[in-house]
Write a structure and sequence with these properties.
Two copies of one chain form a homodimer. Helix content of chain A is about 40%, strand content about 15%. The first copy, chain A, is an alpha/beta fold and about 325 residues long. Chain A has three domains: about 1-45, no CATH class; about 60-155 and about 290-315, Response regulator (Rossmann fold, 3-Layer(aba) Sandwich), CATH 3.40.50.2300; about 155-285, Rossmann fold. In chain A, the strands form three sheets. Chain A has a six-stranded parallel beta sheet with strand order 2-1-3-4-5-11, sandwiched between helices. A four-stranded parallel beta sheet of chain A has the order 7-6-8-9, with helices on both faces. In chain A, α1 (about 5-10) packs across α2. The interface between A and B is medium-sized, with 33 and 33 residues. Chain B binds a DNA duplex (16 and 16 nucleotides) through α2.
Chain lengths: ~325, ~325
DNA sequence: CTGTTAGCGCATTCAG
DNA sequence: CTGAATGCGCTAACAG
């Protein structure tokens, strides 16, 4: 298998030094040429060597504008982990949700040691460029199932939602509403599926009038709950797929002259830092947010070191019972 | 004098791009060639341009572990501003509150374009090193009055606290408690001074039993308020120097069987994103947090460009009246 | 003699 | 359309 660089060079139609550059992941090779040479190298059983020398000590993290305390907490965990490993985090709060590729390319050009992308998954072209350059990538809570060859991490969204719903059902609730997240995202889909599975298993119907699919925001929860209360079919409990939407739901219930949890129970999802201080303290599903950031960085460094990692990691959620849930009246 | 690069290139016997590279101090020219080209350039009255590209495009930001939503919101503003200017933010969440100097040195070694330090002020030695290297520094909400030659930014803490207290007084409150921040910090001192000034101006005594100096945290507000309610002297209103401590105060009041604002009014300070969603919605003093981050970056870039900037910038706070304050019973 | 690194010029892009 | 700036692949010199 000890193929000569000259052989490959001739095959692809470039010079020997160019093949050497690609083999060592040096920057001054165009994406097109790199691609062709990489293919030939692989065919001959040679693999791209990770950049031994120039480590900039920089890890790039991208979040999109819209996120709230969720992203901040994960970043905090990632920052602590990076600190431990002597790395610094370059944080990009991207105003353009669709410019994940541009971000990746800029970071690559600067010589980043690795990329952590929140939710967004770079395009196949961009991922290939990253792989060719030996720059590792980890996606946190991917919008869509991460494609083969991508490393990703999330919480057990299905199980968490299942546990939340089971908690309500075990208290005796039967008319349970759901305020899902945006159902074009995998995590929201998984939570909704968990809700439905628990209801099904308990032999309960899901009333379409008691399902809102708008989003994770406070106002989503508020508006959804108002609509349900104004409609004829009042639920005795609400599964909100985020702490924020739970907060909005509680507000709407109060404004309607009802009490939580006496009239309606509410359970959230996330366990944000402030959620134990809401009124009433929120029963919710805890995601290990800081740990997700921490592990994302660990995975990145393992990838960079050429170690094997699982393609997808799921961290366990847990039920945190506080005072916003109770048996129905 | 308008000598063409082509002319010089021919004279020295190199290509036009090579002359261009020397003129712009690019690295990929040999010492020998550079010398000959430089001589020819000077003969034609052209001078080597200073490395405009000695910029890494990186701005370093340091926050300490302890901060909550406050720091996150300021960082968000800074990130947006950096984005607009094509810079990236290197975020360091430092577990060691006293290692500001070490952070500054590491960032300098990496070739940062500028430093934004939250609260902490680097030592005089470190500041001199920065000045010598031409690396600008902006301190956000300095712990102590920033020394000469340092650029800093904060909100109008005194005026904000004065306004908050005046609001309570104008509602008719006389027994007003204060939960100050940690009084070793300038911002907490200024807020406490604003409180005292407003009380003095209204001819009101400040009861030492109604002043707590523990800190800005939720539990600080909670513990302080419990102590006051358990003591003999119940206030009719509380000025909390942060939204978090206000939140803790409200919780303590509720647990004591009293109501906000019917029995006791509470006003906060910050206007964090969640404060409009507390129960009741919190009356507070808004700090333009995102704008502080934004302006910090603007100042940094102006300093870097050699433009004059004010040594200290104060951004205006404003009173936001919601539902946690009302006239006394 | 194989693989790596430096540095130059071609071709292309960019600015006026 | 012209002069300048840059990306990138080559040759050449070098190292093991």
């Amino acid at each position: 298998m000890a193929a000569q660089l000259a052989e490959i060079a001739a095959e692809v139609g470039v010079s020997v030094p160019t093949v050497s550059k690609v083999l060592n992941a040096r920057p001054d090779v165009s994406a097109a040429t790199r691609k062709r040479v990489t293919a030939a190298l692989l065919k001959h059983g040679l693999t791209i060597r990770p950049r031994a020398r120039s480590s900039t000590g920089l890890l790039d993290v991208r979040i999109v504008n819209l996120d709230g305390a969720w992203a901040e907490t994960v970043v905090r965990g990632a920052a602590a982990s990076a600190q431990r490993h002597g790395k610094d985090l370059v944080l990009t709060v991207d105003p353009d949700p669709d410019d994940c590729d541009g971000w990746a390319r800029r970071a690559m050009a600067r010589g980043t040691d690795g990329l952590v992308s929140f939710v967004a998954v770079p395009s196949e072209d961009a991922r290939n460029d990253l792989a060719d350059s030996g720059v590792p990538l980890v996606v946190v809570d991917p919008l869509h199932r991460a494609p083969d060859g991508t490393t990703s991490i999330s919480a057990t969204n299905f199980q968490g939602a299942f546990d939340a719903t089971s908690h309500l059902l075990s208290l005796g609730h039967r008319r349970v509403a759901a305020i899902t997240g945006p159902l074009h995202q995998d995590n929201a889909i998984a939570r909704f599926a968990g809700f439905q599975a628990a209801m099904l298993q308990a032999g309960q119907q899901v009333d379409p009038a008691l399902v809102d699919r708008s989003g994770y925001g406070i106002t989503n929860g508020y508006d959804a709950t108002r609509a349900m209360l104004d409609g004829g079919t009042r639920p005795t409990a609400i599964f909100a797929a985020s702490d924020d939407s739970a907060l909005g739901a509680i507000r709407a219930i109060r404004e309607h002259g009802l009490h939580v949890p006496e009239d309606i129970s509410v359970i959230g999802f996330d366990d944000l830092p402030h959620s134990q201080w809401t009124d009433p303290p929120l029963t919710t599903i805890r995601q290990p947010l800081a740990q997700m950031g921490d592990v994302a960085v660990e995975l990145l460094l393992r990838l960079r070191a050429g170690l094997a990692v699982a393609p997808h990691t799921e961290l366990s959620t847990s039920l945190v019972v506080r005072s916003s849930t109770a048996p129905p009246a």
